Amino acid sequence: MSIFFRLIRIVRPWAGWMLLAAFLSFAATGSGIGLLMTAAYLIAKAALQPPLAALQIGIVGVRFFGLARGVLRYLERLASHDTTFRILTSLRLWFYDALEPLAPARLMQFRSADLLQRIVDDIQSLENLYTRVLAPPVTALLTALLLWFLLGFWSPLAAVILLSFHLLAGIGVPLLTARLSRGTASGILRWKAEEQMLALDFAQGLAELQMYGGIERHRKRLEHAESEKLALERKSALVDGMQETLIGLIMNAAVLGVLSAVLPEVSTGTLSGIALSIATLAVMASFEPFLPLPGSVRHLEADIHAGKRIFEILDATPEVTEPSSPRPIQGELPIEATALSFTYPGTLRPALDAVSFMILQGARVAIVGPSGSGKSTLTSLLVRFWNPGSGTLRIGRHPIEEYSPEALRRHIALVSQRTYVFAETIRENLLLARPGATDHELGKALRAAGLNHFPTRLGEFAGQHGMQLSGGERQRLAIARAILQDAPVVILDEATASLDAPTEQEVLRRIEEASEGKTIITITHRLQEMERFGSILVLKDGRLAETGTHTELMRKQGVYHAMWNSQHQSIDGQQ
């Protein structure tokens, strides 16, 4: 139940709104009971054919409670829905604020579809926490207290009998249905999540499934998840029908019990026949707020399951935290690594091992090396996606941990090899880098990235994951975004890998022209026109194998020389 109490603490700021909505619900239910009681009084009284004046109290009561019931029910719905939407909005903002520091390091272990399920559906299911878990017991308890009080005036024995049946309907039936449906609510959520993950994988991987003949196998997995979910939903529906039937039987039994208690008093004249009819309808009406209680137990199970999945993410310790007193970023930003090492969680081999280098402000530096040598890991450390395992990494002559990650990323423009283009227009994708940029500035950045015809296409939809664009256009759009950011440090992590060699060199030349005075760090596997770099860092197996200019490294005839010869012999052979 610790998950439940944690959820309660989250919605505590809206306790006043929840109490108001619960009171209005009780008042609306009480008005409904009052309507039936006054109607019973009016009908029973009229049967005795009294003067019309004697019926005025009943007539006024029916009108009053009839109007009050409608108005109060409307106000209750208004208050409860407003409360629910406030809670839901708060939960989404709270979850996102807690989730953001975990990206990307702590979120790598989760599938994207699973994350989407938790962010959308699990949060959505928590809207039931108030309307279907907390409010119904409060309304039922207040209604029961009202009826015990009213009935106790006429017959204490009848009040005790009604109490016993209320306890049976309010505690016994929910416990029974909870036992019969144990695991159903959480199972439905679990299979629904599995179904959505499979559906998303199917949509995103359709081309690969078609190519390798995996559509039928994937379809069977999807059908299995759907059938398991439907089986649990059928079980839940059967339990729903059973609990409604049980409460109906308990209500009828309560009426018989109360009648058996008050009939002797009616026969002796202690109570009138009118009071008997009023008591009968009041007892029947009092069970209305007990109908949602068994469902509250099942929704509680679903909410706890959803809360557990949410807290499973949020309880993770962020890899990168905000410093208590962030250092302002100002002046030149030289980059210096001293014995820098890093090992990914769950692995034994260091991705970087005692790497040391110095990059001055305004330098043109290339980082090269075989796949898996640690090039992209170094990029992740520079933008604080991860913290160094050991050694120091300084930017602006201060340890990188002293800077706010958000502020640091505003001063470093990164174009990675996995470019993400949002399902928005080309303009909206560019404005991520500088929200207030004009179309003229956007066009200038696009032309600098080699997209000369794109300034006239700013309003075009880029498609899901940018699929309306070619791979090369997506990469150049990301480059334009980095140019628009106007950061003092630009990191190109295989940013031109999807371009042919001549186009790549032209784009890199334009980037250098647009980034005069800025530090440009280029991570590449293509050793083309390397003479333009003032320094080249050569990584191998996580270590800095060599450093120097192209000419110096070729003279050493080491790792770089071997890579150069291997690539150019391959190119010569193809020609």
TrEMBL record:
UniProt-listed Pfam families: ABC_tran
Gene3D superfamilies: ABC transporter type 1, transmembrane domain (1.20.1560.10), P-loop containing nucleotide triphosphate hydrolases (3.40.50.300)
Membrane protein topology class: Multi-pass membrane protein
Keywords assigned: ATP-binding, Cell membrane, Membrane, Nucleotide-binding, Transmembrane, Transmembrane helix, Transport
Annotated transmembrane regions: 20-44, 50-72, 133-151, 157-176, 245-263
UniProt cross-references to SUPFAM superfamilies, sorted A to Z: ABC transporter transmembrane region (SSF90123), P-loop containing nucleoside triphosphate hydrolases (SSF52540)
Gene Ontology BP annotations: cell redox homeostasis; glutathione transmembrane transport
Domain ABC transporter: 335-566
The keyword Repeat belongs to this UniProt entry's keyword annotation: no
InterPro entries (UniProt xref): AAA+_ATPase, ABC1_TM_dom, ABC1_TM_sf, ABC_CydC/D, ABC_transporter-like_ATP-bd, ABC_transporter-like_CS, P-loop_NTPase, Type_1_exporter
GO function terms (MF aspect): ABC-type oligopeptide transporter activity; ATP binding; ATP hydrolysis activity
GO terms for cellular component: plasma membrane
Cellular compartment(s): Cell membrane
Highest taxon above the source species: Bacteria
Residue ranges annotated for the ABC transmembrane type-1 domain, each copy included: 19-302
Principal subcellular localization: membrane
Keyword Transmembrane helix: yes
NCBIfam families: CydC
UniProt protein name: Thiol reductant ABC exporter subunit CydC
Species name: Pelodictyon luteolum
Lineage, top ranks: Bacteria, Pseudomonadati, Chlorobiota, Chlorobiia, Chlorobiales
